[in-house]
Write a structure and sequence with these properties.
By secondary structure, the chain is an alpha+beta fold. The protein folds into two domains: 2-132, 60s Ribosomal Protein L30, Chain: A; 144-319, Phosphoribosyl-aminoimidazole Synthetase, Chain A, domain 2 (Alpha-Beta Complex), CATH 3.90.650. Helices cover 35% and strands 25% of the residues. The longest helix has 18 residues, at 48-65. It is globular and about 55 Å long. It starts with 12 loop residues before the first strand and ends with a strand. The relative contact order is 0.18. The mean pLDDT is 95.
């Protein structure tokens, strides 16, 4: 559909929609550019305050993926005019405000629309030196791939909706989804990182495919190395798979390959749509060990080396 629209061109537009990057980047001067991104979605948990925390963290993540610093936020709200206690909306917004404050971001306003289904998110403006933008393209052959959060949020939240999730599994998922990617972003800027993206709705396989296609390489992922949320593997085997996972698999069918020896639960996890997922970082092999160690020392939930970049093959992504 986007291909039918006029292509936007401007000498100061550094990053647009051409490579499905995480955000747009517009240069204001030689040493300053703004990053623009927006995201919102329906509730993934029952508690409205926690939902606000998760949605805000997710919205902020695109700026961190590009190596930028988020500065301001605008709330985006869809909420029923009747039938639901307005205090629920207050709690959602409070969660968003608290997460923004944790990130040092100022919420400057927003917009609301009457809707039968609750939706919440933020439009974020960040800043960056235009000479230091980290895109989702640029991965080089020989790079090592690091993932900074465990996978499986879609599987876990599906089980939650069906009342089949333990307290421990719920708390682990919430801890991951509410955690900002700020420290991972700051740390990766200190190393030779060639590409980065955050893992969200297209899952690990989908976002890896975008990186590979934009970089003209193949990404090899090791299933046994994938960090997975507690309970997610078991729940995947029990059938708690989202519709988004199935759509991801259908879209990527001719673009990726899954090895015959990959366990079925890890196959599902790799395609699972993520909410407020981690950063997938393509870093020089010489810096990979140091970056992974720095991430672990900073308390990152998962700092797993999950694969490498190889010359372009028959498919864009291989899960082995």
């Amino acid at each position: 559909m986007l291909s039918t629209l006029p292509r936007v061109s401007h000498p100061d537009l550094i990053v647009g929609v051409e490579t499905s990057d995480d955000a747009g980047v517009f240069r204001l001067r030689e040493d300053l550019a703004i990053i623009n991104t927006v995201d919102f979605f329906t509730p993934v948990v029952d508690d409205p305050y926690t939902y606000g925390l998760i949605s805000a963290a997710n919205s902020l993540s695109d700026v961190y993926a590009m190596g930028g610093e988020p500065k301001t936020a605008l709330n985006i709200v869809c909420f029923p005019q009747s039938g639901i206690d307005k205090e629920i909306l207050v709690e959602i917004l409070r969660g968003g405000a608290d997460k923004a404050a944790e990130a040092g971001v100022v919420v400057v306003g927003g917009h609301s629309v009457a809707d039968d289904e609750i939706k919440y998110g933020m439009a974020i403006t960040g800043v960056i030196d235009p000479r230091r933008v980290i895109r989702n393209v640029g991965a080089c052959v020989g790079d090592v791939l690091i993932l900074t959060k465990p996978l499986g949020t879609g599987i876990v939240t599906t089980a939650l909706k069906r009342g089949h999730l333990s307290t421990e599994e719920y708390e682990a998922a919430v801890a991951s989804m509410t955690r900002l990617n700020d420290s991972a972003s700051r740390l990766m800027r200190q190393y030779r990182v060639h590409a980065c993206t955050d893992i969200t709705g297209f899952g690990l396989m989908g976002h890896s495919c975008e990186m590979a296609m934009g970089s003209g390489v193949t990404l090899q992922l090791h299933a046994a190395a994938l960090p997975v949320l507690p309970g997610a593997s078991r729940l995947a085997l029990e059938g708690y798979v989202t519709g988004g996972c199935k759509r991801n698999r259908t879209y990527l069918a001719d673009k990726v390959r899954v090895g015959a020896d990959v366990p079925p639960e890890l196959d599902e996890v790799a395609f699972d749509p993520q909410t407020s997922g981690g950063l997938l970082i393509a870093v020089s092999a010489q810096d990979a060990t140091a970056l992974a160690r720095a991430l672990e020392e900073a308390g990152t939930l998962a700092a797993a080396v999950i694969g490498q970049v190889v010359p372009r093959g028959e498919v864009w992504v291989e899960l082995l």
